[in-house]
Amino acid sequence: MSNTVLEQIAKDIATSLLDIEAVALKPNDPFTWTSGIKSPIYCDNRLTMTYPDIRNKVAEGFVTLIQQLYPDAEVIAGTSTAGIPHAAWVAQKLNLPMAYIRDKAKGHGKQNQIEGRIHPGQKVVVIEDLISTGGSSIKAALAVREAGAEPLAVLAIFTYQFQSAIDAFSEAGIPLHTLSNYTALIEQAVASGKIAESDVAALQAWRENPKAFGNA
User: Fold this and answer.
1) pTM (predicted TM-score)
2) Strand intervals (E) in 41-198
3) Contact present, 31 and 41 (Cβ < 8 Å)
């Protein structure tokens, strides 16, 4: 797949996320995460479910990535809970089986961590909505591996592009691809007038060192 196609998908998805305020940027009045970290960005990709055109655009983006990069995928698996609806829409478009992966095994019944059926040896694409540290997504992919199947990759709607997440996926041996990313989002936010050009340096500094942003 050409870089031009990937860049266009990233721009289109970033614009859509900004339009519906699934992603909001406030470099001068940062949000506070539950961890206490100050953040200039708020991301809630679950809002994409509310907008048929946008959720379809997201699904088509995932389908394009899978068809181009992982045409031998046999199962689409969503992460619980935010990845589940997107995995369902993608699986429907590709006419493939779908499953979902809990963050841990249930404490009752069959004590499943994977719901639905993934057979040993099957090739699986994991669908996620957001990559921050990458920990939960990697855990889901490793659950697929522990079940005897092959996690081909994790695909997500958006990533903050933290170096720590990039390193974590590399160390786990799990490829990661996202429809859009923090860089594309900033570019589209500037182009649409949602933030000023003068805000870009602070936004980039946050990505490089989130714990230091607004906490000096």
Assistant:
1) 0.94
2) 41-43, 75-79, 98-101, 114-115, 123-131, 150-159, 176-181
3) yes
